[in-house]
Amino acid sequence: MAVRPRSVVLLSGGLDSTTALAEARAAGFELYALTIFYGQRHVVEAVAARRVAKAFGIVQHSEQVIDLRAYGGSALTSDLEVPKDRPLDQISHGIPVTYVPARNTVFLSLALAWAEVLGAFDIFVGLNCVDYSGYPDCRPEFLKAFETLANLATKAGVEGAGAFKVHAPLIHWTKEQIIQRGIELGVDYSLTHSCYDPSADGVSCGRCDSCSIRLAAFKSLGIEDPIPYMNE
After folding, report:
1. CB 179 within 8 A of CB 23
2. Residue 67: Cβ-neighbour burial (10 angstroms; 0-12, 13-18, 19+)
3. Helix, strand, or coil here: 163?
4. pLDDT digits (tens, 9 = 90+) for 97-125
5. In what order do the strands lie in the sheet with 6-10?
6. How far apart are CA 60 and CA 53, in angstroms?
7. 88, 151, 175, 179: which could form a disulfide with 157 (CB 3.0–4.6 Å)?
8. Architecture of 6-221 per CATH?
9. How many angstroms separate the CA atoms of 180 and 186, rounded?
10. C-alpha 211 chain-centroid distance
11. Whether pTM exceeds 0.85
12. Rg for the chain (alpha carbons), in Å?
C-alpha cells in the first residue's frame, strides 16, 4: 500500500476551513488538523471544529491555546462591538474591525512547526480574498511570502528534506463556489459555524458580516443553510 503524504490543515470549524479540509482529503493527503483557541469572544466555532474533525476521521486533531486577547485590537478579541447589518457591498471595502492583528501569521507559524515535526510539507488553509478583501493576511501575496519564509526558516527547508507548500484552494472562489465544491466533496455544513457573535447557546446571529455573507450565498444557490439562526 502506498504511503499517503501528510498535511496539516488549519481547522477553525467554519465553512471555509471545513471545505479546505475536504480538499486536502480529496487530494489524497493524510489529515492532521490544528484548531487554535486564540482568545476570541466565543469558542462555538472551535467546538464545531471538533465535530468536523470527528466526521472526517482525521489522524490527529491538535488544539492549541494562545491569548491574542491580551493584545486586543479586534472586535473578536476585545470588547469592541461586532458590526451588524452591513450591506454586502460595504463588507468588502476597507479593513474591518473584525481583523485580528497578525492572526494568520501566528496560525500558519504554529501549523508550520507541527508540519516540520510530522515530516509534512503541505499546509492547507481556508483563506479567501474575494469575500474578505479587506483582510491583509488573506491575500495571495501574503501566502506566497509565508511559503518563502517557511522554506528559509526551518531545518527541513534548509537541509532540503522537502519544500513547504501552503495550499489555499479557496483563495479566489466566491462563497457560492466554495459551498458548491464542498457539497460535491460531501461536506456536511450543518457541522460548521461561522458567526462572529453567537448567542450564549451557540446560535448564529444572522447579522454579522460572516453570517450575512454565508446566508446570502446559500440563498443565491437556492439551498437552505442547515444551521440555526436567531429569530428564525
Report:
1. no
2. exposed
3. coil
4. 999 999 999 999 999 999 999 999 999 99
5. 60-65, 30-37, 6-10, 122-124, 165-167
6. 9
7. 151
8. 3-Layer(aba) Sandwich (3.40)
9. 10
10. 15
11. yes
12. 17
Pull the grid cell for residue 20: 479546505
Grid coordinates given for 195: 458567526
Rounded to the nearest 5 percent, the helix, strand and coil shares of the chain are 40, 10, 45
Q: Which of 69, 64, 71, 49 is nearest to 113 (CA)?
A: 64
45-60 per-position pLDDT tens digit: 999 999 999 999 999 9
Evaluate whether 132 touches 123 at the Cβ level (below 8 Å).
no
Is residue 25 within 8 Å of residue 35, measured between CB atoms? no
Q: Where are the alpha helices (DSSP H) in the chain?
A: 15-26, 44-56, 88-91, 103-118, 140-152, 155-158, 175-184, 209-221
Which cell numbers in the block locate residue 70?
A: 491580551
What is the identity of the amino acid at 168? A
DSSP-derived letter for residue 154 is: S
